[in-house]
Amino acid sequence: MLPFNSKLLKGNMKHFFYLRFLLATVVLFFSFSMQAQVCTGSLGDPVVNITFDSLNGASPYVPTSGYTFQSADCPNDGFYTIINSSYSCYSNTWHNVTKDHSGKGKFMLVNASFEPGDFFVTTVTNLCPNTTYEFSAWILNIMIPSNSIKPDLVFSIEKPDGTFLATYDSGEIPVTSSPEWKKYGLLFTTPADNATIVLRIRNNSPGGYGNDLALDDIGFRPCGGKVTATIQGSSDTVNICEGNTTQYTLSGDASSVYQSPVYQWQTSTDEGSTWQNIPGATTTSYLRLPTMQPGKYWYRFTVIDAAYAGITSCSIASNIVSINVHPLPVVDAGPDRVYIQGYPVTISASASGEDITYYWSPPLYITNDSSLNPVVTPPVDMLYTLHVQSAFNCNSKDEMQVKAVAGLFIPNAFTPNGDGLNDRWNISFLDIGFDADVKIFNRWGNIIYHVSGATVSWDGMVNNIPQPSGTYIFIVKFKDKSLPEIKGTLTLIR
After folding, report:
1. Residue 312 dihedral angles phi and psi, to the nearest 5°
2. Domains of the chain
C-alpha cells in the first residue's frame, strides 16, 4: 500500500518491462481476453487442484522470481501469505474476508508488486490427448470500492521452452461492495502427442494503491459434455435413518458427444476426498441396496470414451447425489425409581443425537414432560417412556418405572441358607434419590457391611466368610438431613 504517485511511476516501469510479453502473445491475448471460458459441460477429477488448505507456509507453486511468502495477516507489497481469513488490513481499505471460496479452508492473499510477477507455475504431464481441459482459479478483489488499481491476471499454457499454446487475460477484476469470489479461466485442448505443458498465472497490472487480491482453488481438469446423475423419485440428497431398508435406483445420463462411452458408477464415504469404482456398476442405472451403517454415502456417474478407457484421469464425472444414513438417537430413560409419598422423585435421563427433541409419556404427575430431569409424584405405579427424535426424524425411546409406595420396609430377619427364600437382607423401596448410607455392625461394634447411595442387599458374608447366627445392628442415614436416621436390629438365622 504505497502512495498513489509512486504507483504511477512503478506502473509505467512495469508496463515497460512487460511490453515484450504482451507483444509476443498479442494474437492469443485477443482470442481469450476478458471473456472467461470455463467449462459449461461436466468436469473430471482435477489433474491440478491447489486449495492451499494444507499449507502452513510458502506455496511450492510460487517461483522465487515471483512473489515472496510472508507470515503476516496483511502482507506487504510484493508479498503473499496463506491464510483462512483476513481482517482490518491497511486501515480497512481491504475487505474483511471471513472464509475462502469453499468456505472451509485457506486461500492465497497477495499484495501486488510493482513489476510483473508469477502467482503460480507448475508443470503437468500424462494428460489425455485431444482432450479439452479447464484451467481456472477463483479470484477476489480484496480492495473496498475506491479509485484503486484493479487486478488483471494472465493465465497461460506453455511448452517447457516457453512457447505459448494458449493464454487468457482476466481483464480488470472489479471491486465489489462485499467480498465476492469469481471464477476465471480458459479452455484448452491437448495436442495429439500429449506433450508436457506448463501452467502459469501472472500479475498483469501496475502496482500501487490497489491491485491486491485473493486466489483460491486453482484447478486444471478435463472438461466434457454434460453428465448427470439422479436418484429416481427423489432429490439429489436423501436423508434416511439407521436401519432403513429402502432401495434406491440411481440413473445416469451422458451427452451424445461421447461416441463410444464407457460408464462407471463410483462411491465416496469421505465426502468426495476419494472415490472408488462400484464393481459391476457399468450401466446408466444402478440399484443401491440398503446400507445399515450410518454415514454419508456419495455417488457419481462417470463417462470416458472407449479409446481412453485405460486412463482413469480422462473420465468426466456427473454431479454428486448422496444418501445420508443418520444414526438413531441414543436414549437412556434412567434407572427405575421408587416414590415414597411426600418425597418427589427426580428422574435422571440422558439423550444425544443430531439436533434432538424429546418428551415423556404419559404426561401425568410430571413437572415438565420435555425435560430430561423432570420431577414426578405418581400416586400409583407408573411406566414413563422417553421419546427422542432427531432433526432427520430418526426416533428412539426408552422406558423407566416409578413405583409408588407408602414408606420403607426394613426386615428384621433373614435366612441366608441357600434355599431361595429370604437369602438376603434387603431394604425395599430405598430409592437411590435418597442417597442413603447404610451400615451393619456385629456384636463387637465392627462394621461388617456398608453401602452408600446404592442398592442394599447383604448375603450374610464378610470377605466370603459366613457370619454366625445372631443379632446385628443397622443404621440408615440420609443425605437429606430433614429425613430422620433409622436404627434397628436384624437377626441372621442359619
Report:
1. -65, -25
2. 4-224 (2.60.120.200), 227-326 (2.60.40.10), 330-405 (2.60.40.10), 413-492 (2.60.40.3080)
